């Protein structure tokens, strides 16, 4: 019994000594850490290298955000996912408004080009009911030898590009105009070049190509020349970019450069009469050629030099 008591005393004494040694080590380690922290603060500057947040929970495995009161709220992946799934989309009118607002902020050229195309499309729907509207559209918004060469309506070279009479034609061109226009706009902006000279020049080049190859009394309208010029330039800048499309309800995915070559071949075949349809293949070929030529000039720095000279002359006159 006595031996058992002595062993218990020895055990208690040993436990007390171990506790003292442990606490002493912790104090030494804390003092060393404090000195190291102080040294870091002296190097970095400031009183503390971190700012404590009483509402922060270190057990959170996900990031959160601050609420309106400035309190940190933990976010869980499940709640975020459920919110995104169950959130209602905005009304269609608000969604359309938000789209055009963001488009105007991103590129006024894409915004006004899309707006003009929609406006002229609406006017074309009244050509049969209003004789005055139909006459104005046919005289000023159609590219033809009669309007441009005989009547000297040179503005029709550009205005005809934003003229669409059918909904399918409008939808396809607006989708391509927005898709490739955004990419080309960013590429040109990296060199300080605006997008609108490209669009205007492409529309003129495509219209002139149509007039040069037209042997009869044909006419053309639509933004296809501009959109194909954007596609050609973008496919040469990013030849390996994967493009997806649906042809006769068949999904197709291929590199952009292959699509560019395919469109060139189809346009040439259409001009030779091997491909039918009510399509201005010469305008398409003109747009593709303009995009390729613009890419070569852009790659060699000619576009940037010309842009600099034009800006310098503009500010000198101003």
Give a verbal description of the structure.
The chain is mainly alpha-helical and 318 residues long. It has 13 helices and six strands. A two-stranded antiparallel ribbon has the order 1-2. A two-stranded antiparallel ribbon has the order 3-4. A hairpin with a 5-residue loop joins β1 (65-66) and β2 (72-73). The termini are far apart. The model is unreliable at 1-67 and 70-83 (pLDDT under 50).
Through-space gap between termini: 111 Å
Order of helices and strands: HEEHHHHEHHHHEHEEHHH
Number of helices: 13
- Characterize the largest beta sheet: strand count, sense, and whether it forms a barrel: 2 strands, antiparallel
Helix content bin? 55-70%
Feature tags:
single chain, 318 residues, mainly alpha, two-stranded antiparallel sheet, 66% helix, disordered N terminus
Task: Give a brief outline of the structure.
With 318 residues, the protein is mainly alpha-helical.
Write the layout of secondary structure elements.
Blueprint: H1 2-44, E1 65-66, E2 72-73, H2 77-86, H3 92-106, H4 108-124, H5 131-140, E3 143-144, H6 145-150, H7 156-159, H8 167-189, H9 196-213, E4 219-220, H10 224-237, E5 242-247, E6 250-255, H11 256-271, H12 281-299, H13 302-317
Antiparallel strand pairs: 1-2, 3-4, 5-6
């Amino acid at each position: 019994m006595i031996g058992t008591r002595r062993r218990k005393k020895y055990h208690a004494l040993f436990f007390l000594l171990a506790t003292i040694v442990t606490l002493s080590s912790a104090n030494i380690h804390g003092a060393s850490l404090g000195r190291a922290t102080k040294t870091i603060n002296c190097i970095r500057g400031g009183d503390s290298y971190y700012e404590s947040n009483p509402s922060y929970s270190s057990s959170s495995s996900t990031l959160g955000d601050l609420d309106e009161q400035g309190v940190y709220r933990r976010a869980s992946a499940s709640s975020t996912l459920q919110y995104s799934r169950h959130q209602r989309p905005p009304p269609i009118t608000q969604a359309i408004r938000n789209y055009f607002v963001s488009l105007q902020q991103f590129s006024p050229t894409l915004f006004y080009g899309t707006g003009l195309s929609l406006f002229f499309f609406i006017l074309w729907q009244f050509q049969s009911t209003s004789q005055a509207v139909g006459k104005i559209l046919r005289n000023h918004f159609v590219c033809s030898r009669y309007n441009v060469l005989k009547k000297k309506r040179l503005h029709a070279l550009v205005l005809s590009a934003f003229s669409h009479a059918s909904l399918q034609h409008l939808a396809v061109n607006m989708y391509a105009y927005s898709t490739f226009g955004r990419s080309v706009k960013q590429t040109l902006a990296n060199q300080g070049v605006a997008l609108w000279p490209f669009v205007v020049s492409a529309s003129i080049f495509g219209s002139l190509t149509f007039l040069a190859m037209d042997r009869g009394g044909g006419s053309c309208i639509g933004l296809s020349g501009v959109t194909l010029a954007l596609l050609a330039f973008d496919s040469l800048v990013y030849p390996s970019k994967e493009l997806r499309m649906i042809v006769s309800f068949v999904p197709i995915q291929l590199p952009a450069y292959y699509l560019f070559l395919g469109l060139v071949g189809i346009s040439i075949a259409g001009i030779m009469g091997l491909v039918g349809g009510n399509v201005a293949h010469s305008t398409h070929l003109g747009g593709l050629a303009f995009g390729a030529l613009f890419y070569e000039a852009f790659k060699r720095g000619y576009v940037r030099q010309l842009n600099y000279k034009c800006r310098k002359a503009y500010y000198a006159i101003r």
